[in-house]
């Protein structure tokens, strides 16, 4: 593994920089989208039809994904640097990645359930209801399980890397 890291150190540095830059850009865009869409939704609270149309046409959840994906990119960047730089200690995102991933899994699961419950009365027939519910269940369970799986892997792999550094 050490020879692979030494042979590809330049590529790993490039990937690290790309992940960090992408992560910060996604965080900035995600937070600006959260603020912008929150203001847009608040201004429509008095008119339920405008609120409903905006909520379903500009789905807030698709835009908010910039924040978790940005943090995930930062975590990947920190992990890459942690692998190739022996003097580097994990940053805040990598140290708290497991808890962050659990929080994202819960938030995503809740948002899927909430969106499905709110949208359910507007679906027309049983075919549409079946297809949309099946898609929501597959998408929701798949993403939640993936996030929990990554959290469990990180919980076990970080101590292994730390231990391998102490064995000289």
How many strand units?
A: 0
Summarize the amount of helix as a percent range: over 70%
Shape: elongated
For the record, the count of structural domains works out to 2
Oligomer classification = single chain
H/E series:
HHHHHHHH
Strand content: under 5%
Poorly predicted parts: none
Query: How widely separated are the two ends?
Result: 13 Å
Number of helices: 8
Mean of all residue-level pLDDT scores: 83
| Radius of gyration, whole Å | 20 Å
The structure class reads mainly alpha
Largest sheet: none
Walkthrough of the structure:
- The chain has two domains: 1-88; 96-168.
- It is built from eight helices and no strands.
- The chain has helices at residues 2-7, 9-43, 48-57, 60-64, 66-84, 92-95, 97-119, 126-166.
- Helix 2 runs antiparallel to helix 5 (66-84) and helix 7 runs antiparallel to helix 8 (126-166).
- The longest helix is centred in the last third of the chain and has 41 residues, at 126-166.
- It is elongated.
Summarize the structure.
The chain is mainly α and 168 residues long. Helices cover 85% and strands 0% of the residues.
Q: What topology emerges from the helices and strands here?
A:
Elements: H1 2-7, H2 9-43, H3 48-57, H4 60-64, H5 66-84, H6 92-95, H7 97-119, H8 126-166
Helix pairs in contact: 2-5, 7-8
């Amino acid at each position: 593994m050490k020879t692979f890291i030494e042979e590809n150190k330049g590529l790993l540095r490039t990937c690290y920089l790309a992940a960090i830059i992408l992560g910060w850009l996604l965080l900035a865009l995600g937070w600006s989208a959260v603020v912008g869409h929150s203001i847009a939704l608040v201004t429509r609270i008095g008119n339920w039809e405008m609120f409903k149309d905006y909520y379903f046409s500009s789905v807030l959840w698709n835009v908010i994904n910039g924040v978790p994906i940005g943090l995930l990119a930062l975590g990947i960047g920190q992990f890459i640097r942690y692998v190739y730089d022996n003097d580097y200690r994990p940053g805040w995102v990598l140290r708290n990645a497991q808890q962050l991933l659990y929080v994202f899994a819960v938030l995503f699961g809740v948002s899927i359930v909430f969106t499905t419950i709110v949208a359910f009365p507007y679906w027309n027939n049983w075919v549409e209801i079946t297809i949309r519910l099946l898609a929501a269940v597959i998408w929701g369970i798949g993403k939640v399980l993936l996030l929990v799986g990554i959290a469990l892997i990180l919980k076990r792999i970080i101590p292994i890397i730390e231990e391998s550094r102490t064995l000289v």
